[in-house]
Amino acid sequence: MATQEEFWDRKKKLNDDFFVMGSVANPATEKQISEYEESTGFTFSEDMKDFLTTFGSLVFEVKEEVWKRPEEFDVLPSWKFGYGFFVYGLSQDEEMPSWMGFEEKHNEALEYNEYPLGQMFFKRSGNLYRAYTDNGVIKIEYDKYDDQDYEVFDGNLYDFLIQEIDNLEEDYLEYISEGKS
After folding, report:
1. Where is the signal peptide (predicted)?
2. What number of other Cβ atoms are within 10 A of residue 103's Cβ?
3. pTM reported for the whole predicted model
4. Domain containing 127 — which CATH number?
């Protein structure tokens, strides 16, 4: 199982075409986490709590000047919409936008599923897929309207995030190689 340090070391290997920001200066407190667990009924694993108290929330993106954002109604292969990902969370940071917080993501999940797969904590840009966590189980959902269309991830939160950095970097390399041809 990967650690926080391995995750952050992997992040540091990204080149300057990547932009990472979040609530690192004011991450969640243990009290915030326990109050949120009590109010929702979710139980977060130790690695999720570690992420929340260290990072709060994060955004990983390829800079817009490198990966042009698709326009509304663009017809492209789905992976070309995946220029980044969002790791939602909890934070003491009053500047953190509400759309990066667990509460708004939970309400979003409830809009289309009375019993969501857990707390939505991750979404790839372009709405390619989402991930949920509850009691240490990570479920990846590919179609928000199909209750059966998910897979269980074998690993902890940091394994998942490292894999997502790898996926993003792979897509970035394909994107820039297409621009050179």
Report:
1. none
2. 14
3. 0.91
4. 3.40.1580.10
Number of neighbouring beta carbons within 10 Å of residue 39? 10
What is the rounded distance in angstroms from the CA atom of residue 120 to the CA atom of residue 122? 6
Q: What is the pLDDT of residue 31?
A: 97
pLDDT tens for each residue of 79-129: 677 899 999 999 998 888 999 999 999 888 888 777 788 999 999 998 778
List the Cα angle 178/82/167 in 5-degree steps: 80
Report the Cα 168 to chain-centroid distance in Å. Answer: 12
CA separation for the pair 117, 110 (Å, rounded) = 10
Domain count across the chain? 1
The range of the structural domain enclosing residue 92 comes to 4-180
HSE-up of 141 (CA within 13 Å, CB side)?
Answer: 23
**Helix, coil or strand: residue 50:** helix
CA distance 90 to 80: 29
CA distance 83 to 124: 8
